[in-house]
Records
---
Amino acid sequence: MMAVEVTRRLFTVDEYYRMAAAGILHEDDRVELIEGEIVQMTAIGARHAAAVTRLNWAFISALGQRATVSPQNPLRLSQRSEPQPDVLLLKPRDDFYAAGHPGPADVLLLVEVMDSSAGYDRAVKLPLYARHGIPEVWLVDLEQERVEVYREPSAEGYRSSMTLRRGERQAPAAFPALALAVEDILGA
């Protein structure tokens, strides 16, 4: 029997957008481009949506115009990766990023809320964010009821991490006075 080698066709961000313009991908498709592959995202459940809403409310209320809060919008990491994190805290810009999606240099904090996607987010997306220099990532794990904080990105991953549980507080490195309680992120 002869072995068959399978080759994947990887896409660029420009090709990804051309697929959308041609109607191959639709606006309501829950997909993102990760390392050239179009990845189907999991459905957003009620607990997931509530955690994203709580984070948005907390960040907007506390930060005002000191950061742009961008929920579930694209982040251009490279020509082959454009994920849609659950929440981004971005450096403010007058055009609110109308001239183009933000890139790694624009990110102050990236948050992924996880329920059924925890394994994928830890194994694939977290190392991707580290390689692209995202300074701080919070993984909100709804199943384990914890918030994982990652800082000091490198090509090999994040050099610093901590896990927080209910009763503990954490502030984004960019805004040390904004300490959020874990229960305020996870909910009751």
---
Amino acid sequence: MQPDPLSVDQPTEATLAFLDRILTKPCRVLEVGCGEGRLAAGLQARGFRVVAVDQDAANVQRAQARGVDAHCASFPDGPHVEVDAVLFTRSLHHVDELDAALASARERLAPRGHLVVEDWAWEGVDSKTLTWAHSLFAALRAAGLPMAAEWQLDADRLQRWQDEHEHHIHSSARWREAVAAHFEVLGVEPAPYFFRYCSRDLADEPAGRAVVESVLASERQGIALGDLVPLGLNLWARPLPGV
């Protein structure tokens, strides 16, 4: 069965809502880390012209089935096309050579083009926020929903979180430093992130959408009250002159 090209989940909707405020239509977009192409298809439906890359061949095939001009490549490999925006969707923290990737992104940008990053700041989490997430997801699992086993409550959860991330992916401080070497940062905003884990685990559940919406509302409220640390981080920038 071919995937529904316009099938949009809550994480994709959240990203589209952010991009609606940042990108000007019509424009050409290169998405780095397109996954199965849900966001790229959503952007195309809004009138954007999208080229996408992902290093997972199966994901690229799914994106292509949605009508996305997707290519299997590990950025900065891939199509060298001029675009108005280079979009890293939760992918920049995985890029091994940050400086090379960002320099290549800058080279692909048309005059007055923009870099847009949707990522996370995993290193900023605190014990209270992790306790909230673990307790909530444990309750969902107890209710019979297939939450991943990683969401187990224990006294070492904060240390385990740090150990699982610090040696494998870049911190937000590191990728933001690399961005600043090539671009003038125009804006940075925090965003919810834990609801994305929930959506991943419950994607095939009949009640999944309603549950994820509830988790997102709870996370947003906790952030607004200062009770939770926002792990999501959105950034947009333009090339530094003369670099």
---
Amino acid sequence: MELLTDEGIDQYAFRNTRAEGELLQSLARRTEREMDDPQMLTGRVEGRLLKLLVQLCRPRLIVEVGTFTGYSALSMAEGLGPEGRIVTCEIDPLAQQVAQEAFDASPHGRKIEIRMGPALETIRRLEDEIDLAFIDADKEHYPEYYEAILERTRPGGLLVLDNMLWSGKVLDPQEEIPRVLDALNRTIAADERVENVLLTVRDGVQLVRKR
């Protein structure tokens, strides 16, 4: 992932965002050592943003598409009340193992349930309304995730979509993923069912509120 801002500015934001706890820092280091794509980790600035959004929204049900090693789920779980729960979707057994070990080591891990298998199937089986969703998985299927989750989100609920600027390649999309994300950004901006703001945090974060 290429930086969207000057590296000095990026590091300044990192230093001046309250540090995550040792468990999350350790998880970040393990992800760097053991995973093939460690850049997929959410990281401090976006992780603290997710925690803050959870604290503001006070959701009962969070759905996450793309667990990876569990950093984002644990960040959200820190801000979640005792009655809240997170259903997080994953297909990679190695990522699931690393994430579950991190959840087991955290006092907030009991709030999180990993569901293995295609995320769309998990979403469609949900019985309760979604209060907040975080989408950070295979980009080709973002439009399907957006529609499936929005349909099941309560009015006033929040969707957060990661990597929506794709290292700036959405400006002149020549490949499949930038084209998919550019089209979805345009769809969201014109969608009368929602309000949105596209933030230049990390690799681009869409905040979408269902009307």
